[in-house]
Write a structure and sequence with these properties.
By secondary structure, this protein is of the alpha/beta class. Helix content is about 50%, strand content about 10%. The structure holds iron/sulfur cluster (2 copies). The site of one iron/sulfur cluster has 14 residues, from helix 4.
């Protein structure tokens, strides 16, 4: 694709990167067929190629974002299916990041939308505020009918039951069972410990049982994905710096073999810290180091080798591969292999490459498209007649779980149960 950035603008490293990305695109359109929003809407402007053109025109002209550009970029799920499909290696993710930053800086959204985005960016990354908001949401349910659209949707999403905070998520070190094989830091996350504290608990049991010393580092928190996808560049860098500092401290305090995550959506952010902080002389090297040592829990368990099951399993488990897992991290088979090793009968749904519609805050900001994708995903999953549905990302677990009666659990809960842990609550 030809570009027309001036030399002066190309001196900006972000614009230089945009230019390089755009020049890789040969506008073949292969990516359109696997883009969920194009599949639903059939509009070229809701396809990756269409969004690439919109971003190109906006960034080349350096004009303020228009309502049309904002509408179509906002509809993008950041599922990155287009990156898996693209034969030319176009880094759509880094391009849309720059488009979102430009939108955030130049476009004035209507007041209710600004309020909703501020609310999400403030509340979700903070477990205390998020917990309070869910309690508030539960109390506010009877008044949901009086609330404006998206706030109403948010209140409806508050779970009927909320577990107490888990002691696992506090800064501490869990000793390995038997000889120590690895020392790893675990990202406990922000929304996950509030919505499903049993996932981190199962992860710690599973990893210590497999010979890992598990560090919950002081100062580590939200990965920054929520604010990053809203174009809040400085907020996402601040989250990245806090985590890099926390895990660098853990490295200095006893060494680390890996930083482990159990939410693939967060993992994509961790893997990108090196890129996010690349122009920051103080943080670029430590951030790149943390990105290089970050691993999904399934990758680590494949390295360690799963212990033999201690209970009779055999249930039919349909595995939902999160977009962040398959398109963001390029991990497609690890969790299914582990579940099969643990004795489960693993099934796969049709249209596995398509997003479930969760996508961070997308389900709140784009509720109509999000629900259409969820219903389609649930139909495909249920068609496999599973006894259990498993996934490795909290967003998908909550979103899909709201549309099916089939129990939904995180992969680590099943692996923990199979190798000596308690049976997951969700499967009774
Ligand atoms: S598949 Fe890749 S090269 Fe082709 S239009 Fe899409 S982004 Fe451009
Ligand atoms: S990230 Fe997903 S929704 Fe966005 S353009 Fe690519 S395929 Fe479409």
């Amino acid at each position: 694709m030809q570009t027309r950035f001036s030399q002066a603008r190309l001196a900006d490293p972000n614009i230089k990167e945009v230019n390089d990305i755009l020049r890789n695109c040969v506008h073949c359109g292969f990516c359109t067929a696997t883009c969920p929003t194009y599949v639903l809407l059939g509009d070229e402007l809701d396809s990756p190629r269409g969004r690439i053109y919109l971003a190109k025109n906006m960034l080349e002209s350096d004009n303020p974002a228009t309502a049309q550009v904002v509408k179509h970029i906002d509809r993008c799920l950041t599922c990155l299916s287009c990156m898996t499909t693209c034969p030319s290696g176009v880094h759509y993710a880094h391009l849309v990041d720059q488009a979102r930053v430009h939108i955030e800086k130049t476009y004035v959204r209507p007041l209710p939308e600004r309020f909703m985005r501020w609310l999400l960016a403030t509340v979700v990354p903070n477990p205390t505020l998020f917990r309070l908001s869910l309690i508030g949401g539960r109390l506010g349910r009877p008044f949901a009918g009086l609330m404006p659209g998206r706030l109403k949707g948010m209140v409806a999403m508050a779970p009927a039951k909320l577990s107490a905070p888990s002691s696992v998520d506090k800064p501490q070190v869990f000793t390995a069972q038997g000889p120590r094989r690895k020392r790893v830091a675990l990202l406990t996350g922000c929304a996950q410990p509030v919505l499903r504290p049993e996932i981190n608990e199962a992860t710690v049991r599973l990893l210590t049982r497999h010979g890992c010393e598990v560090v919950i580092a002081e100062g580590a928190g939200c990965c920054g994905a929520i604010v990053h996808h809203m174009g809040r560049e400085e907020d996402s860098r601040a989250a990245a710096r806090a985590n890099v500092a926390a895990w660098t401290g853990a490295i200095d305090g006893g060494g680390l073999d890996a930083v482990v995550f159990n939410a693939s959506g967060c993992g994509v952010s961790l893997k990108d810290y090196g890129h996010l902080l690349r122009n920051d002389p103080e943080w670029a090297a430590p951030a790149a180091r943390i990105s290089a040592m970050s691993k999904d829990v399934s990758e680590l368990l494949i390295d360690l080798g799963l212990k033999k099951p201690t209970v009779a399993t055999g249930q039919a488990v349909t595995y939902h591969t999160a977009c962040s897992m398959q398109h963001g991290l390029g991990l497609r088979g690890q969790s299914k292999l582990l579940l099969a090793d643990a004795g489960f009968e693993v099934r796969e749904p049709a249209e596995g490459h398509l997003c479930c519609g969760s996508a961070g805050t997308y389900s709140i900001l784009q509720p109509e498209l999000s629900m259409r994708l969820r219903d389609r995903k649930v139909a495909n999953l249920e068609a496999t007649e599973p006894e259990i549905i498993a996934a490795g990302n909290i967003g998908c677990l909550t979103h899909i779980g709201g549309g099916t009666r089939v129990p939904m659990v995180h992969t680590v809960e099943l692996l923990d149960w199979a190798t000596g842990g308690p049976k997951p609550q969700a499967i009774g």
